[in-house]
User: What shape does this take?
Amino acid sequence: MDPGLRLMLDSLPPARRRSKLEPYAAVIRVLRTRGRSYREIVRILRERCGVSVGVHTVYHFVQRHTRKMTAPRRARRVLPPEGQVDVWTRMAALKQRGPARVTTPKAWRS
Assistant: This one.
């Protein structure tokens, strides 16, 4: 790599974290598993850690981080109950059909 480019890359500051709550992610996770409300977590962060955030900020942070940590669920194959196979095949055939034919409304006769 060109020495000028390397020097320029080395002089750049490190990338800023996306959220100021990221250093406290483990603490927030433990507080939520212990049943603490979002308001209590905001109060604890303000009093003990000196971090001033809103309730909605903590809520959205928890929602975003719990989605990352859970594995995506596989689709479960649903089997028809015994004796209802015929109903299930008819339902599948109805789903495969195209849209209904559009008819023109009939005029009123007087």
Notes: The mean pLDDT is 82. DSSP finds five helices and no strands in the chain.
